[in-house]
Task: inverse folding
């Protein structure tokens, strides 16, 4: 990261910690939602923006991140926030390692179709109750009682259970910290030799292989990292909502995530985070203005996408670039429009 960019990131991070004090309980919940979506989208962008692979199956890892911890609490009576999150990340990372090994053997549109198919398999396993039945009578009872959903209580955080009033505030600080650490890790990763290898693969896979880059291995590692961090976002959502449902595993959830990534600008590191903020904000505005909020949201998104093909960040970069100045690509993995 260039020194001139560090204060902006720190300024946003510091400002985020004053949200609970400045806003109501509703806006604290909304801010939690925004930051989790930003974490989700930034994790996916390691594939979309830097590797050139579009995944419509990341909802599977998001849902597994919440379900794994939910099963840990429900079946094994392990009531610890840290264990819940760790179980979700391990489950999501393990599934991403398995599915990624199969998906990276294909490229471009075939990769996208495979990720979609894998996600639907996971969704069907949960919605049909197969996973619950594997846990015996208790699991079957849980499935019949909740229809595939699980209740998640307020778990102890560092050995202390927050009160109902303090819970969303404590969770907000936890979510912001998780996003900051994940973004720092991804930023360092994309500036490392591994990140440069991903850019080379994205730009010209054949040339990358010819110069000695192990393309499939790099793509698989990126897939696993992306899936693991997506599981972290799913686990945080499960704790915040106090439940997890099969809908969080559906491919439509993945499509919204891809939309947020492209809306913000997949060609920029912070683009997906901006897109997540924009998507959640547009959704809330549309719901308040009309009963047909899905139609209104779709029309707004089409308008924004048409006016800014490079995403919101790309549009802003073009507007604020000085005339005659060189194109600064410090945070761009590759030129927009090259993500086949």
Result:
């Amino acid at each position: 990261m260039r020194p001139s960019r560090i204060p902006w990131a720190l300024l946003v991070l510091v400002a985020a910690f004053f949200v609970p004090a400045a806003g109501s309980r509703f806006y604290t919940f909304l801010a939690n939602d925004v930051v989790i979506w930003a974490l989700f989208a930034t994790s996916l962008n390691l594939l979309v923006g830097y590797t050139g692979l579009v995944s419509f199956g990341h909802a599977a890892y998001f849902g597994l991140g919440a379900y794994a911890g939910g099963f840990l609490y429900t079946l094994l009576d392990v009531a610890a926030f840290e264990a819940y999150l760790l179980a979700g990340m391990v489950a999501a990372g393990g599934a991403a390692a398995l599915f990624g090994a199969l998906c990276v053997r294909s490229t471009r549109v075939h990769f996208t179709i495979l990720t979609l198919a894998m996600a639907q398999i996971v969704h069907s396993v949960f919605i049909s109750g197969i996973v619950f039945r594997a846990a015996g009578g208790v699991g079957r009872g849980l499935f019949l009682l909740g229809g595939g959903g699980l209740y998640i209580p307020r778990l102890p955080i560092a050995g202390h259970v927050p009160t109902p009033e303090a819970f969303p505030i404590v969770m907000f600080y936890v979510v912001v910290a998780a996003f900051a650490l994940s973004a720092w890790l991804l930023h360092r990763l994309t500036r490392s030799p591994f990140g440069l290898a991903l850019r080379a693969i994205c730009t010209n896979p054949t040339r990358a292989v010819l110069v000695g880059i192990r393309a499939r291995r790099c793509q698989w590692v990126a897939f696993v990292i992306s899936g693991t961090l997506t599981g972290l976002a799913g686990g945080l959502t499960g704790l915040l909502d106090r439940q997890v449902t099969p809908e969080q595993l559906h491919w439509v959830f993945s499509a919204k995530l891809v939309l947020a990534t492209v809306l913000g600008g997949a060609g920029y590191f912070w683009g997906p985070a901006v897109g997540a903020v924009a998507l959640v904000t547009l959704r809330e505005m549309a719901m308040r203005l009309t009963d047909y909020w899905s139609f209104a949201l779709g029309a707004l998104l089409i308008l924004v996408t048409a006016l800014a093909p490079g995403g919101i960040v790309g549009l802003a970069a073009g507007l604020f670039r000085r005339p005659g100045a060189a194109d600064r690509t410090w945070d761009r993995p590759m030129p927009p429009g090259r993500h086949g």
